[in-house]
Design goal:
Two copies of one chain form a homodimer. Chain A has helices spanning 3-14, 20-27, 31-44, 79-83, 109-120, and strands at 47-54, 63-71, 88-94, 100-106, 125-139. Chain A is α+β, with helices and mostly antiparallel strands. Chain A has two domains: 3-44, Arc Repressor Mutant, subunit A (Orthogonal Bundle); 56-132, Lrp/AsnC effector binding domain/regulation of amino acid metabolism (RAM) domain (Alpha-Beta Plaits, 2-Layer Sandwich). Chain A binds a DNA duplex (30 and 30 nucleotides) through helix 3.
DNA sequence: GTCATAACCTGATGTCATTCGGTAGAAATT
DNA sequence: AATTTCTACCGAATGACATCAGGTTATGAC
């Protein structure tokens, strides 16, 4: 993982549709060499997947919120329970007052309420605190440096 | 944006490297028809970009945290100030006690402390509360339904 | 200095993206 | 109802590109 690999990752984050020849141009290598480097980055898991970035609004998911989940039990093995809720985009175990932090996308705040109800149904959950996003400044890829 | 478009988006989220012929197989259309549909999804902005999903650990960014920023002024036009901090991956204006919520990735907790220091330097910021993630259950694409 | 390994380049091959002409169905107009 | 218009689709053709292989240079170990 040298400076060229980082440059390649940065380029691919910006636009993963560009050709290996174009990538080679921007880092000063041949298409073949770039192909081999990217293949290894995928193999090692540094590049997990090639995906598309979708506009949530286009899917009718206009409401973004973060939910702090309080619990009265060990939450270390409840990943599947949260994953079963399709509105939950991220789930993290956190240090501090609450024990789990969720990123939730719903069409409306009414549907958020319904998600909160389903969260309460999960074993060990004792309470929730929802933080509704009013405006997203930005969501961007990880900075590669 | 019909059911076929949603299926295409779901497929592309899973793997954007597959051929249009393969995509056509999974939705029952020809490669040409799929090509045209995807082109329009990009044009409309439903598909914002094609990118790679990078493992933060591979870039040495092992610490994920969320930072609640308290303020004593209107924070509606401070997007650029937060965007200037490369460790900040997301920034949202939120309803509730704090006024901005940040998603921050750093190599270490010491570097998180340094980011907090730089956040304090932003005009209008009166305080911060950092929530450190102990374990990420999952981070996944938006559910297309 | 020599050997071994890894990274690279160039060129060849097959696959695929992209485009085009034509067709069928749906919707709007007369 | 007939006609027109528009949209989505298919199948084929073309050119670009991913992918692979053979040979070469650079890198590092002994």
């Amino acid at each position: 993982m040298d400076q060229i690999d980082r440059a390649l990752i940065a380029q691919l984050q910006r636009d993963a549709t560009q050709s290996y020849a174009a990538l080679g141009q921007s880092v000063g290598l041949s298409a073949g060499a770039v192909h081999e480097r990217v293949r290894k980055l995928r193999e090692r898991g540094a590049i997990r997947a090639t995906t598309v970035d979708v506009d949530p609004k286009a899917l009718g998911l206009g409401v973004l919120s973060y939910v702090m989940v309080d619990s009265n039990a060990w939450m270390g093995d409840t990943a599947a329970a949260f994953a079963a809720l399709p509105e939950v985009q991220e789930a993290h175990v956190i240090a501090g007052a609450a024990s789990v932090l969720l990123k939730v996308r719903t069409p409306t705040t009414e549907q958020l309420q319904d998600v909160l109800r389903r969260i309460y149904d999960i074993s060990g959950v004792s309470g929730t605190q929802a933080i509704v996003v009013l405006e997203t400044f930005f969501e961007r890829p990880i900075a590669v440096g």
